[in-house]
Every structure is written in C-alpha cells, then in structure tokens.
Specification:
Elements: E1 4-6, H1 8-12, H2 15-22, H3 32-54, H4 85-121, H5 123-138, H6 141-151, H7 156-168, H8 170-183, H9 187-194, H10 199-207, H11 212-235, H12 246-255, H13 258-261, H14 264-292, H15 304-314, E2 318-320, E3 342-354, E4 359-371, E5 375-379, H16 386-393, E6 401-411, E7 417-419, H17 425-431, E8 436-439, H18 443-446, H19 453-464, H20 470-483, H21 500-512, E9 518-522, H22 530-547, E10 550-554, H23 558-564, E11 567-572, E12 575-581, H24 582-587, H25 592-599, E13 649-650, E14 661-662, H26 672-676, H27 682-690
Parallel strand pairs: 5-10, 5-11, 8-9, 9-10
Antiparallel strand pairs: 1-2, 3-4, 3-6, 6-7, 11-12, 12-14, 13-14
Length: 691
C-alpha cells in the first residue's frame, strides 16, 4: 500500500520533546511543600548513613555529666548516666530508618505481587490469595506484632522488619486488588491483550503504572507505620534495648522517669524526629501523586525549543514508508459491491453468555459478508448484540461469553482463507492489529491515562515490529498522527490533555498503526457532539478511500450509518433482521423494525411529521419468545409471527446494489407480503407517511 509519511529526520527532530519529558519528574519539586518534604526526608536519609561517623561520643559511654540540659558540649543534653543524647539520636536514626524502609519494601512487594496477581488473574488464584489476605486482615495487628516480637527479642532489626512486614502487607494487597479488578476491565487493557502482549507485560506495563500513586502512598505510609511500630515495641521493651533507636531512647527515658524529673531534652528529640519524618513523608507523597497523575500537572507539554523543533519537522520532506513485511496490501480502490472480493465472511455465528443455570444467546445465528474497501454498518438498539458481535469478530470476548457455533473466514491478499475461530493464541497475536484491529467505544477508557499518545502508538509498533529501530518507530508515530489530523506537537500529550474528538482520532491512529485490512469500530462517535461526529466520519471516509481498508462500523445512530456505510445490517435481539445497501435501505426499508427506527429520526427537509418511534422495549434475551422476537412490538404482526422464527429472506432490489434481505414473514412466499401490507392497514400507512 502506497502512503506518504514523514522522514526519519523528522522523527528525530521530535527528540527534544522526548528529552524534555525525561526531566518531567523535576516538575514535582515546583511545589514548596513537596520540596520541603523531600529536603526533610533527604536529611534523615543522610543522617542514617553518616550518623555513626559524625556522632561526637559513643552513645553508650557514661560520664559524670548526668542529666545535663542542652549545652555547647552536649547539644541535646545527657541522660541520667551521662550518655550523650545527640549521639544516641544519630545512631538511632540509622536503625529506625533501616527498620522503616526495610519493612516498607518487603510489605509493599508482598502487597503488589498478591494484589495485582489476584485482581488480574482472577479465578482460583484470586480466591486463594484473597483468602490469605483476609486471614491477616482479621487478625488484630498490634497483638500479633507484640506476640511475634516477644519471641524474637534478640534478632535485632531484621526480626523487627520481618514482624512488621508479616503484619502489614495485607491491607495494601486488598486495596491493589480492588483497583486491579477495575483496571482490568478498561479498554486499554483489552487493547493490550488484543495485541498479544504477555500477561506479565500487561500487569507491569499497563496496570502497575496506573497504581504507582497508590503503591507510593502505601509505601510511604508503611515507612511511617513501621517506624512508629518499632518505636512502640522498643518503648515496651520488646526489642533489643541495647540497640540504639528512637524507640530505645524513649524506653530509657520512660524507665528513668525523665518526664517526672523534667528532663524534656531526653524524650522530646526522639518524638520530634518521628513526627518530623512522618510529615516529610506525607509531603513527598503529595509530590509523587502529582508526578504520577498527569491530570495534576500544570506545566505545558513542551518548551519553545521543542515547539521550534516541531515546526521544523513539519517542513521536512515526506517520503514513502517501507512496505509491509507481512504481505502486500492491495491498492485502494472505490468499493464496488459487484466486483469487490470478500475479505471476511461470518457464517451462522452464535455467542452465548453462560450462567450457572442459564444460557443467554447474545448473538444468534448471524451471517455477514464484508468485502474489500467496504464499510459495513451494524445498527440496533442497546442490547441487540452489536458490541458482542464486535468482540467475537476480534476474539476479545471473555467468560461468561462463549462462541458456541459458526465460522469466521478471513481471506488474505493472496486468496488464502483462514477460520479466525480456529486460530491459536500465537496466530491471533499476529492476526490482531496486523490484519484486523478495533477502535473501542470510549477513547478515554481505551487510552492508558498515564502514557502519552506517542508512547501508546510506539507500544503497538514495538510489540509487532521488533525489527524497527527507534527512529523508524518515531517516524511512524509522527506519520500516524498526521494521518488522523492531529498536530505532531501533541505526540507527548496525555489523553486528558486532548479533546474528545482528538482522543477518538488518536484511537483511530492506534487502529491504523500496523496497516490492518479490517478495522472494527465499536460506536467510535459515542458522547461526541454532532460537529465532532461529522469530523470523525469525514476522517474515516478519507482514510478508507486513501488506504483501502474495510470497516465494520457499529452504532445505534442510523442517520450516521446511512451517510457512512455501503451496506447496513440491522440487529434485533441478537439476530440480523435486515441487510441491504445503504441507499436502498434509506429509500425502502423492508423490516418493520427498520421502518420504526427510521421513523424515529426527524428530517431536515420536507414536510413536518410526528416522530412515531417504536413502542415497547426489546425482549429479555434470557427468555426469548418462541417466534419472531419483534412480534410484540410490531404493528404488522399476525398469528404465525408468534410461533415461527423468520429467516433472512432475499428480496428484489436494484440490480446495481447488494440484494436486500429481511427476516420477516411478511415476505415469505408469493403474495404474502402484498396481502399483509393492505391499503387499509392504518399502522403501516402511518409508518409509510413517517418515512
């Protein structure tokens, strides 16, 4: 397929933006409270490392200067036995920080592994790991900590780290599991799964980064909690009281009745250090949350230098992109329903939702044909099976959805047919995005909120084009943004920084990344205003004519489909009830359901008329009627409609268009339709007038 793109030099010119993004973490320090917290924590970390070296005295050495207040010789005073409190504080900082950070690392690693694995893998893994976490949650933490610590009084800091870790990981795991359960249903995770990425990569590339703010807050909170727990255990004498820590200092102050004797300098420094470190960690947490969450960032996406680089990139010459490595694409030609060859054929496809005691047919015996360069529109009310069909075609359905029967035959460029349903996981990995891609319904949920648009495009290329260099991928990303009408200086923009229309264009760019032959678009204009809808539709038509791919466009908006599609299939209760050329469908809809749908839309020209709509509601798929599912709402139904399920019946139509079909008993047999559609049928006359 011959298309134009930017040069590698142009892609390289975008590197200043990438370079500037490498230092985006510096933005976290522009908040004074964040900087204050970092300074406080940094000072304590430095003191923990060098404290024993700079201590003026041995913390255990006694002297005759007993219970002395702060003085030039002893900056923080002395104890009842003449020990220097400053030296004890410096030594104690190392032990307290070691226990706090060590316990936080172990507890956080345990909570991340258990929480993410349980939430994403589900099933038996989730049940077992959740049971383990629940056991630790119901056990009172403080009594358990005291009991364990009392059996490990001489193990030093390592024993305290293990005790605090064992008792402190379960809550974090529970929170991360709940967040993972929510994230794994997001469309950007489905998109990553569709590209064939490994489970471990999805967990740590797509889910884990979205929870860093929660993990960081849990880690910093665990550090504070571990320091407080260690101080409490030491204060109660449950640790090695000869090992200096802030808790040990408080223990000896309490044993020596420092508060009763008014020796405030003995216990205030340790308590103040704990409070000050906890405050500093909290302030750092605010900065981490701002850095991790792009929505909280206030700075722009690029510098003047980067903007000049982008302006220069736009002036670069354009060259042809290298040809596809997995087979040549046929040259794009206008769609011709007579001469165009079939690229996808769906035969008698059935998709059921399997419950404990029920089977719900969401897609029931659906047969469709998609030709090269064609836009096949699928319409119907909510719950008619449109999205289930889209997920079945792309093999993205998950339990309880199950394909119970049928075939989906894909014909590649050399004419070889392959049943998509028989593909292995590795074959699906190559097939998805290479030959068939999907544009999900909600771009805000389909795009990873913590990755830039350019990074998400690059991710698809890296997964399927391992032989492409970094410069070639960057050039392709710039090209894709240009194809969908997004300025290339938005390559480092996050999804929330784009408008709804731009996000949807970005999703289309992701779908085009690997030059697929078929793109399934599942209601891509949902929640967009009519002006943006128009722009998206025009862009889809432009790209289709330019690149020659085929489109399955799913929506409940018939007026949109009539303008965009070559062929329209109308679904009701999991079945296709009408299939016709878009122009013929608009001129002469055959099925009463289609007539009712069209009568629900106002016209922009011609005489005014009352919008009739369709009375009633779609049937419950779990309890479908014996005959036609539309019979209860149909103004033309007769007795046989309640007992016989109508098949798709070929009808007469213009020779130059696709032969229309309708699943309605009104068209069964010679003269049946004419007798049913009698002139004195007022209901049908109203439908005709509305049309």
């Amino acid at each position: 397929m011959a298309i134009t793109t930017t040069t590698v030099a142009e892609a390289e010119s975008s590197e200043p933006l990438e370079a500037s993004s490498r230092f985006a973490w510096l933005r976290a320090f522009r908040r004074p409270w964040t900087l204050t917290g970092v300074i406080v924590v940094f000072i304590f970390c430095v003191l923990a490392v060098i404290g024993p070296w700079i201590a003026p005295y041995d913390p255990s050495a006694v002297s005759k200067q007993t219970l002395m207040p702060p003085s030039p010789e002893h900056w923080l005073g002395t104890t009842q036995t003449g020990q220097d409190i400053l030296s004890q504080m410096l030594y104690g900082t190392q032990v307290s920080m070691l226990v706090g950070v060590g316990a936080a690392i172990v507890a956080t690693v345990l909570s991340v592994l258990v929480g993410l694995a349980a939430g994403y893998l589900g099933g038996l893994t989730d049940e077992l790991l959740s049971l383990l976490a629940n056991v630790f949650l119901v056990i009172p933490a403080l009594p358990l900590t005291v009991i364990l610590a009392s059996y490990l009084p001489k193990t030093g800091s390592l024993g305290i780290i293990l005790v605090i870790s064992i008792t402190g990981w379960a809550w974090g795991a529970r929170v991360l599991r709940a967040q993972t359960l929510s994230l794994r249903k997001r469309d950007f995770v489905e998109a990553a799964r569709a590209t064939g990425e490994r489970t471990s990569r999805i967990i740590f590339r797509d889910i884990f980064p979205n929870q860093i703010a929660i993990i960081a807050a849990s880690f910093l909170g665990t550090v504070t909690g571990a320091i407080l727990t260690q101080a409490s255990l030491a204060f109660l004498g449950l640790t090695n009281v000869t090992e200096w820590s802030w808790g040990t200092i408080l223990y000896w102050a309490q044993v020596s009745s420092a508060m009763l004797t008014g020796a405030w300098w003995w216990f205030v420094p340790a308590g103040l250090a704990i409070a000050l470190l906890g405050t500093g960690l909290s302030l750092v947490n605010f900065g981490i949350d701002e850095f991790i969450n792009p929505r909280l960032r206030q700075a722009g996406i690029g510098t003047k230098k980067a903007q000049r680089a982008q302006a220069k990139a736009k002036r670069q010459a354009i060259v042809k992109r290298p040809q596809r490595k997995r087979g040549e694409r046929s040259a794009p030609v206008p769609f011709d329903p007579v001469t165009s060859d079939v690229i996808l054929e769906v035969r008698n496809l059935t998709v059921d939702y399997i419950g404990e005691n029920s089977v719900t047919p969401a897609v029931n015996d659906v047969s469709l044909t998609l030709r090269r360069g064609e836009v096949l529109g699928i319409a119907g009310e909510s719950g008619s099976g449109k999205s289930t069909l889209a997920y079945a075609i792309t093999r993205l359905h998950k339990p309880p959805a199950q394909i119970s029967g049928g075939e989906m035959l894909y014909t590649n460029a050399d004419g070889t047919k392959t049943d998509i349903l028989s593909m292995s996981d590795s074959e699906l990995r190559d097939f998805r995005w290479e030959e068939l891609s999907i544009v999900f319904q909600s771009a805000m949920h389909a795009l990873n909120p913590i990755l830039t648009i350019g990074a998400q495009l690059d991710d698809s290329l890296r997964a399927h084009r391992p032989d492409m260099t970094k410069q070639e991928r960057a050039a392709r990303v710039i090209e894709l943004l240009g194809l969908v009408g997004i300025q290339t200086d938005r390559v480092n923009a996050y999804p929330h920084e784009l408008s709804g229309g731009m996000r949807q264009r970005a999703m289309i760019a992701v779908g085009l990344a690997l030059d697929p032959e078929i793109i399934v678009m599942d209601e891509p204009t949902t929640a967009l205003d009519v002006v943006i809808q128009r722009q998206i539709i025009e862009k889809i038509i432009e790209l289709k004519e330019r690149l020659g791919f085929s489109v399955i466009f799913i929506t409940h908006d018939l007026s949109l489909l009539i303008e965009l599609s070559d062929t329209i299939a109308v679904m009701y209760a999991g079945r296709v009830v009408e299939l016709a050329d878009a122009k013929e469908f608009y001129r002469n809809p055959r099925h009463p359901y289609s007539q009712g749908l069209l009568a629900s839309f106002p016209t922009l020209s011609g005489p005014k008329h009352e919008l009739t709509g369709i009375p009633g509601s779609p049937p419950d798929l779990r309890r479908l009627p014996a005959g036609c599912a539309f019979a209860d709402r149909c103004p033309l139904a007769f007795d046989r409609c309640t007992t016989v399920v109508p098949p798709l019946i070929p009808l007469a139509g213009p020779a130059e268009w696709r032969q229309p079909e309708a699943a309605c008993l009104l068209y069964e047999g010679d003269g049946a339709a004419a007798s049913a559609l009698s002139a004195d049928d007022s209901d049908f006359a109203e439908l005709e007038d509305a049309r």
